[in-house]
Amino acid sequence: MNNRINIALAGNPNAGKTTLFNRLTGARQHVGNYPGVTVEKKTGICQHNQAQLVVTDLPGTYSLTAYSVEELVARDFLVNEKPDVVIDIVDASNLERNLYLTCQFMELGIPVIIALNMIDVAHSRGVEVDHEKLERLMRAPVVPIIARTGKGVEQLLDTVLQCRADSTREWHPLNMSYGEDLDRILEDIVPVIEENNLLTDTYPARWTGLKILENDDQILDRAMHADKSIAHGLLTKSEQVTRHLLSTVEAYPEAIIADHRYGYIKSILRQGVLAQRFDADRLYTSDKIDKIVTNRFMGPIIMALVLLGLYSFTFTYSTVPVGWLESFFGFLGNSVDNLLPEGPVKSMIISGVIDGAGGVLGFVPIIMFMFFGIAILEDSGYLARVAFMMDRIFRFFGLHGSSVMPFIVSGGIAGGCAVPGVMATRTLRSPKERMATLLTVPFMNCGAKLPVLALLIGAFFSEHQARYMFLATVVSWTVALLAAKFLRMTVLRGEATPFVMELPPYRFPTFRGLLIHTWERTWQYIKKAGTVILGISILLWAMMTYPGLPEEKVQGFEQQKNKIVGSYTEQVVLELQGDNPKLSEEAQKLKNKLLKIDNLMAESALQNSMAGRIGIALESVSRFAGFDWRTNIALVGGFAAKEVIVSTLGTAYSLGSVDPEDSSSLKDRLALDSNWNPIVALSVLAFIMFYAPCFVTVVCIAKESGSWKWAFFSMAFNTVFAFLLAILIYQVGMILVFGA
Ligand code: GDP
Ligand code: MG
Predict the structure, then answer these.
(1) What separation in Å is there between the alpha carbon of 60 and the centre of ligand 2?
(2) Which residue among 157, 314, 347, 678 sits deepest, i.e. has the most Cβ atoms within 10 Å of its Cβ?
(3) If pLDDT is split at 50, 70 and 90, which confidence band does 603 have?
(4) Is residue 55 left, alpha or beta, with left meaning phi > 0 and alpha meaning psi from -120 to 50?
(5) Closest-lying ligand to the alpha carbon of 20?
(6) How far apart are alpha carbons 590 and 575 in whole angstroms?
(7) What is the predicted pLDDT for the residue at 656?
(8) Are residues 54 and 159 in the same domain?
(9) CA-CA distance, 70 to 58, in Å (whole number)?
(10) Whose Cα sits closest to atom 7 in ligand 1?
(11) Taking 90 as the threshold, does the pLDDT of residue 317 lie above it?
């Protein structure tokens, strides 16, 4: 028996061919080039038992088409040299892709032994390959090895010798189906190839037929050389079927053939070859879901629905607990009101501590629901798809696909909150893209801005309310994206990071995981509300309260009140002091008059407070945008929290009702006030939408960016931008409307 065996090592690049080759041949190697091309040819000798093995390391390829020199070299070697055995090195951690080449060896009908390499890598990734099952299904010997350590190499060589000795073993080209159209034409042309012996001394007839259908230049050339007229006839048929496929399924035969090879491999792998520490089915299902979910047309629609769903889920289900918290803080305020004597301590506890921190803690349910919803999207893998779809648009503005969620959370659909939005930027890995996102999310219309928008739109544009609300959303997105672009072109200039995101397979989130994610984020928010915000809110209260009215002014108001009371009969005064809810006409008149004085007093106290003085001082600048001093106070107060704007406007415009819930009278008052008109309203609206983020957001920006520098930048940048915009609107608007 001839004990010299020719072996070819074939496989994908990086599957471990060279490693195995070196292990087998040691120092006994010969390195040259394949004839005619500069592709390295390495040959070596290996002794095993009595046999001498001549091993050739083929160039690494993924396929056996004629597209690259390596592929041509590999397949020419196989068909011309006809090695006794081909050892196909397959990377077990990347089985599907590697078996694609194996599949083509089988089509070629050469004797293949599969060396299942890198089983250590596969194992560490949770993949266990059932090599016995693979052997049965592929109908070729499979030997698991670790080329790097040499594990399994002896068995591999034993298998080589066995194959050689086993003379009864016959090698047949694998006859797989390529779909009806191609199967039919193969049945038609293979007999023609066989009868005319077209290239049959080199290739199996079916393989030649397949290559003609794949429009393989080399084979077509050789066929033309061998028998021009037959080759022409085959080519015509191939062109016919190509046209047919293009018009029916819009694909070339080679694409369909490739699809069927992959389908063949998939069906093998799905029969339990990949052991279930790793769920192949899940990957497969994910692919199917993604076909719909990231589809060019369906994708955005589904995304919009999901985001809308998240938004309405959050705001629908959080109203109840928000109500509980509101009544709790209301109850707390009332209790303090009843327990403590009148004075600055009581005022501070109610207006500073309870209203301030309570206002912030009141958001906790919204934040919890929002984070719960986001946790579902994130843990299930859907968020990655959203980022994937939005990336192209966002990239244009210097942002990233992962910027979408922070924008939505901050109020991109209206009514979010920039605080969780800023926190949500953590998913961005590039610092500059993250900063750009962080700085522009406060431009969204958060839930606290909505009452202000509703108030001003209601007062001045009540006829087109919905349209203006929609416009506000569009404008906020436009401004945010343009601002991002601007930042990325100036202070945050830098490369866009490529969006290489492997879409993870979908999985069912666990309830425990969701709760943990939700709580972690909510707790961070609560901690902040308890510390920084409490301090700030006390400070604001003090600024709007001190130094208060000088004594003689207070007395002046008291005198006015006494004078009015004096002009009414004792009966009316007594009626007012009692708690009869239904007052007589006279008593009601008196009450209104007294209320008016109280409001005047409150207004002048406010004017005299630090905040009031600031408001008046700011008038010298703010008048360019049409804001009067009272608006200024509200805007300064709004820095603490945007919802303060409505209540502060209420106080500042000294209305009977300073209840932020009841803005109807404020609305009418503003509509009638001589300082206000639709142009002023637009200018104020623009300013409120874009000026400095509220204090909590600023603190978050400082924390998330790791420096107060960016927090101050955000305050200054946004305020300057918003103010310039407001001036523009006011000045242009006044000229257009009033021609002045
Ligand atoms: P080739 O492109 O097919 O020649 O692949 P190489 O032999 O150059 O191997 C590619 C890389 O995989 C090298 O870093 C090897 O050290 C590594 N490698 C090869 N076989 C194994 C193995 O069984 N286990 C592990 N962990 N690494 C391997
Ligand atoms: Mg190599």
Answers:
(1) 7
(2) 314
(3) confident
(4) beta
(5) 1
(6) 10
(7) 37
(8) yes
(9) 8
(10) 16
(11) no
Per-residue pLDDT, 243:
92
Element (H, E) at 6: strand 4-11
Ligand 1 atom with the shortest distance to the CA of 13: 2
pLDDT at 279: 58
**Looking at the domain assignment, is residue 348 inside a domain?**
no
Establish whether residue 631 lines the binding site of ligand 1, counting it when its CB lies within 6 angstroms of any ligand atom.
Answer: no
160 in the same domain as 49: yes
Residue 661's pLDDT band (boundaries 50, 70, 90)? very low
Which residue has the CA at smallest separation from atom 6 of ligand 1?
A: 16
pLDDT for residue 666: 67
CATH number (domain holding residue 127): 3.40.50.300
| 33 and 142 inside one domain | yes
CB-CB contact of 653 with 666 (8 Å)? yes
Helix extents (H) in 109-216: 119-124, 131-138, 153-165, 180-195, 205-213
Q: Which ligand is nearest to the CA of 24?
A: 1
Residues 441-463, mean pLDDT to the nearest whole number = 82
CA of 30 to the centre of ligand 2 (A): 15
Determine the residue of 17, 123, 148 to mutate for testing ligand 1's pocket, defined as the one with the most ligand atoms within 8 A of the Cβ atom.
148
Question: Is the distance from the beta carbon of residue 23 to the nearest atom of ligand 1 less than 6 Å?
Answer: no
Q: For 60-128, give the DSSP string.
A: P-S--SSSSHHHHHHHHHHHHH--SEEEEEEEGGGHHHHHHHHHHHHHHT--EEEEEE-HHHHHHTT-E
Q: Is the pLDDT of residue 696 over 60?
A: yes
Q: Which of 374, 453, 357, 358 lies closest to 410, judged by CA?
A: 374
pLDDT at 466 > cutoff 90: no
Distance CA 705, CA 699 (A): 10
pLDDT of residue 668 exceeding 80: no
* CB neighbours of residue 533 within 10 Å: 21
User: Does ligand 1 come within 6 angstroms of the Cβ of 683?
Assistant: no
Q: Which ligand is nearest to the CA of 40?
A: 2
DSSP run (H or E) holding 143: strand 142-144
pLDDT at 416 over 80: no
**Lowest-pLDDT range, 19-28, 200-209, 222-231, 341-350?**
341-350
Main-chain dihedrals φ then ψ at residue 112, nearest 5 degrees: -110, 135
The predicted structure's pLDDT at residue 413: 65
Where among 205, 226, 250 does a domain terminate? 250
- Provide the number of structural domains found in the chain: 2
- Which atom of ligand 1 is closest in space to residue 89's alpha carbon? 3
Last residue of a domain, one of 165, 200, 232: 165
| Ligand 1 centroid – CA 117 distance (Å) | 9
Whether 186 maps to a domain, the answer reads yes
pLDDT confidence tier of residue 529, bands split at 50, 70 and 90 = low
C-alpha dihedral sign at 332, 337, 342, 347: positive
**Protein residue with least CA distance to atom 25, ligand 1:** 118
Residue nearest to atom 13 of ligand 1 (CA): 16
Please give the pLDDT value at position 232. 95
The reply to whether 80 and 14 lie within a common domain is: yes
pLDDT band at 350 (very low <50, low <70, confident <90, very high): confident
Residue 297: its pLDDT value, please? 85
Domain that holds residue 145: 4-165
Based on the domain organization, do 21 and 92 belong to the same domain?
yes
Any idea which ligand is nearest the CA of 17? Answer: 1
Q: Mean of the pLDDT values across residues 303-311?
A: 76
Identify the three-state secondary structure at position 51.
strand
- 694 neighbors 701 (Cβ within 8 angstroms): no
Task: State the pLDDT at residue 152.
Answer: 95
Tokens of 390: 């939005």
CA of 146 to the centre of ligand 1 (A): 9
The mean predicted confidence, pLDDT, of the chain is 84
Split at pLDDT 50, 70, 90, the class of 665 is: low
Same domain, 101 and 194: no
309 part of a folded domain:
no
